[in-house]
Amino acid sequence: MKGQVLIVDDDKAMCELIDTSLTMKGYATVWCQSAAEASELIHNTEFDVVLTDVKMPGTTGLQLCQQISSSRPDIPVVVMTAFGTLDTAVATIRSGAYDFLTKPVELEVLSLTIARAVERRQLTRQIHLLEQQTRNENHFGELLGESLPMQRLYDQMKRIGPSDAALLITGESGTGKELVARSIHQLSNRSHHPFVAVNCAALSETLLESELFGHVRGAFTDARSERKGLFLEAEEGTLLLDEMGDMPKSMQVKLLRALEEKRIRPVGSDQEIEFNVRVLAATHRDLETAVEDGLFRQDLFYRINVIQLHLPPLRSRGVDILAIASHYIDQFAERSGKKVAGISETAAEKLLAYSWPGNVRELRNVMERALALTRYDSITIEDLPDKIRDHQGGTVFIGGEDPTELVSLEEIERRYIEHVLKAVDQNRTQAARILGFDRKTLYRKLKSDSDPDSTT
Questions:
Q1: What is the pTM of this model?
Q2: Under DSSP, is residue 217 helix (H, G, I), strand (E, B) or coil?
Q3: Which domains does the chain carry?
């Protein structure tokens, strides 16, 4: 069943004609011959669309439309009229109608209009459900989302949490790797001890060594007092090494030794100190490729990659986008004192269509901006940045019907490989997994594409 449609027209023959046409298209239909009967039916039955004539004895179709718009704004109303003038169109839209059709009704046009109205109704219900879920705190720790990729992630986290094994958290920038690490810490036996995080890309090698291992007084310029370092600050707890893929290679050697021996040596000291810390690593880089390119130590990679947890990008999480957006709207509205609740259907469609290269971090920024700019009680399409309003979904063009436009299978493969690499932010390991190649095959094909004279 495509949807439930209520037909309202005092002309019985018209009701029966439309009923037959829509039933053949897969809709469940109910019809009646007065606005009063329609109101009773709407009160007792859940409809996806109401289709009503304008001219009826007693309450008119426009008055019925106004009643539905006031009491059930989630139900789109399509109005039929024999008077297709501009004044009639304006009156129809002002009454809250979703659309209007002129009589005699073309059945194919009617079918398309009903299909669009049902889609809008379903999207409205979905938005409402997601807003309810968000307000009911449907989440896992600080992570929001109920999509299948996130359900799989939550299941993995529940199993990994109690373990003390080394964990590598991978995923694009902005996917929430630190939030996952914090949730893993809360699920572990170390949850009553410190959780400490450090961004390995934000510090030079000298500062990073001091930050991790500590230093003694006088170890270097400005070392006026002793510092114990993050490994000891996180004692019996969890230490997250964020952006691990950006760690200088010489520092990787020192970290590997510390992880293998469970001992650190503060900068400038000749004494080693034991530690008891679970170490988690996170990166947006493709470490397997970095190992092959000589940029990351293979032995350290094996040491931190006992278990790997990959975070899905926001674009693959479907309607989670709307749940997270609603969460941020509530958060920023409360903070600013603005009475804004929810997202319009057109804005929601644009949010779902956008590719979100910056992931959740970008969505948060967009919602904060939208709430600051909006003049209404919900976020509309006008409140979104141009790049989201104007976004067109990516396609892999393979040619049209003209034989001169058709391309070879080799060219189709090349375009699709480029499309996948762009979608995964050039992560070759992930791209190879999606394409069904091993990494060596992918490298060979990429080399072949870049070198026209090479052979495969």
A1: 0.62
A2: coil
A3: 4-134 (3.40.50.2300), 141-310 (3.40.50.300), 314-389 (1.10.8.60), 403-450 (1.10.10.60)
